[in-house]
Amino acid sequence: MEENLHHYNERLAFMHQITLNLLRQDNINDLVQTITDEVTQLLNADSGYLALVEGETLVDRAISPKHAPYQMGTGSLWEDQSVMRQVIDSRETLVVSDLSSPPNASPQTIALHAKAAMLLPLFTMDTCQGVLGVGRTNTNKPFSEEDIFLGDLFARVAGLTIENTRLREAFRQEAIRDPLTGLFNRRFMQEELTVELRRAERNTLPLTVAMLDLDHFKRINDTFGHDAGDQALCQFGSLLQSRFRGSDIACRYGGEEFTLILPEASLTDVLERIDELRGAVKQLEILHQGTYLSQLTVSIGIAMYPKHGSHGEALLKAADDALYQAKLAGRDRVVTA
User: Fold this and answer.
1) Whether the bond into 65 is cis, omega within 30 of 0
2) Which one in 68, 166, 331, 337 has a CA-CA gap of 20 to 30 Å to 19?
3) Domain extents for the chain?
């Protein structure tokens, strides 16, 4: 009895340490992987799994160990009749003796060779936001009452840390995003430009800054109203997001003026991509209250590090000067500093 109590206290102490580790995570992807790795260890399992409800889908987010033979995917909550859906609907822990035996078990689940399995609902207050699962391949090692109690306790802690991380990320996005277009805001752009310049200098890499301004934008506001202008800005912002790489930074600088930071791209590549963007802007069809707005065009100025400036302020000014020259030359064009 004393030995069992000592072992139980050790597991509680381990879970306390895990909880502290989870609270230090500030990235949702790192967090869900850590949760999955830690619950696998806590419950002496051979594999772990975590899926989250996102809208009307159940999305696989983590598997442990990472090299486990499981192909992560996404499924509809309403069409999914698996044990995962059963846990979400019942909001209760499910313990099964052979996870691969149900007739609706997926090929991915069967590939894990899990026998004894425990599937735990992940709660945010009273809402089930996903499923945390663990499995053992040894048929002679079912999960004990103690395992189930610790699993339930851990799943509740995990659910709250996921929700807290999501909230922190939402607040962070609000702080760095322009609320109208969803692009990064000017403050974030200036911070990232400093970071990218340091990286470019350290690794001797090219870096381009482009300033963009929608031509005759005031006419849209004056003719169709500010709602139409906002719609045009939103569609232009969506176009920027769809046309550039994840490593590029698109920002609303202010009003109808935008900024692009393009790391590690040659001038030839930048000019080609920027001119394609200029052409795509002219193809935008903006319908507002049954009326198509007049064709949008954009003027663009480009500056490159280190040729046109060695620090952020100098690069932005060089790009802005080039933009001014594009305006003077008739608009709807790209000019390099």
Assistant:
1) yes
2) 68
3) 2-175, 186-336
Asked if 298 and 212 count as a contact pair (C-beta separation under 8 A), the reply is yes
Q: Rounded to an integer, what distance in angstroms lies between the CA atom of residue 282 and that of residue 12?
A: 63
Helix axes 226-243, 267-282, angle to 10 degrees: 140
- From the CB of residue 320, how many other CB atoms can be counted at a distance below 10 Å? 19
pLDDT tens per residue, range 111-168: 677 788 899 999 877 788 999 999 998 878 889 999 999 999 999 999 999 998 988 8
3-state helix, strand, coil in the chain (%, to 5): 45, 25, 30
Residue for token pair 């189930």: 148
The closest of 213, 218, 237, 232 to 292, measured between CA atoms, is 232
Alpha helices in 43-112 (DSSP H): 83-90, 107-111
- CB contact at 8 A, 184 and 251: yes
CATH architecture of 2-175: 2-Layer Sandwich (3.30)
Identify the sign of the CA torsion 63, 51, 157, 112.
negative
Cα 193 to Cα 207: distance, rounded to the nearest angstrom: 9
User: Using one digit for the tens of pLDDT, what is the confidence trace for 50-90?
Assistant: 999 888 888 889 999 888 777 777 766 655 557 788 888 88
Cis ω for the linkage preceding 103 (within 30 of 0): no
186-336 shares the fold of 2-175: no
Averaged pLDDT score across all residues of the chain: 88
Q: How far is CA 269 from CA 52, 81, 206, 316, 326, in A?
A: 39, 49, 11, 20, 19
Q: Tell me the pTM.
A: 0.66
- Give the HSE-up count for residue 264: Cα atoms under 13 Å, Cβ half-sphere: 9
For 186-336, which CATH class? alpha beta
